Amino acid sequence: MATLNTWRLALDIKQWVVTAAEAVKLHLHDDLKVNTKSGRNDLVTNIDKTTEQYLVQKIRAQYPEAKIVGEEGFGDQVEDLTGLVFFVDPIDGTMNFVKARENFAIMIGAYLDGKGIVGVILDVMKDELFWGGPEFGVYKNNLPLPKPKNITLSEGLLGMSGPLLVHDVKHVAAAVTASSGARIFGSAGIEFTKVIQGFENGYVSKLMPWDFAAGKVMAETLGLKVTDIDGEPLSMLSSKIVLIGTERTHAQILALQ
């Protein structure tokens, strides 16, 4: 592959995501075709599918040698991370999209030989575009984001998966008790935007690679820690309980395991 211009790549991804969001908004109040996947709370709609098809088409046209991991199955069967790999989540927070028409995101993460180079998350209904990478920093729309303060667990709010908290998986109830309180948005993308802005000092949830790929790039660029709940590096090709946090918060939650 020719030398990759990551700034050009970021501009491309931002344009695709913004255009996709405009199409989603046009159909926001249409009668959705809603189906379930793994269970009654794991939803997919016709908008999820058409959005991913659009994004995959744009990637293939501009970066034909790249591999694509897509939530709805329109990408490739990816078995390794060599070369350029895109992780596409067309509607992150589909339950929110179906039930509330807010707190959902469109996300793309781009990785080169396993290293995150560009992450983009668009909070569709707020028109807040978060994007960035290690070569040029992280931005909210056109404004650079500072590194979040390295605060402890007790000093901030903790983003949390509802099912993990209800069943107290991996001692997350103790982490919530030690924090200033739990926040549950039902969208990994929205939660990542809260942490990278410093509104939350951590987030714990069981996620697929397309759920965390974009946010991981931006979080690590800003000095946040992103691992599995046991402190191990994340696999980009399998599901894990993901822990993102400031260094202090991250260490405190690991100490509970």
From TrEMBL:
Coiled coil: none
Statement: the UniProt record of this protein carries the keyword Metal-binding: yes
UniProt xrefs under SUPFAM superfamilies: Carbohydrate phosphatase
InterPro entries, alphabetized: Inositol_monoP_metal-BS, Inositol_monophosphatase-like
Swiss-Prot/TrEMBL keywords: Hydrolase, Magnesium, Metal-binding
PANTHER family: INOSITOL MONOPHOSPHATASE, INOSITOL-1-MONOPHOSPHATASE-RELATED
Protein name per Swiss-Prot or TrEMBL: Inositol monophosphatase family protein
Taxonomic lineage: Bacteria, Bacillati, Bacillota, Bacilli, Lactobacillales
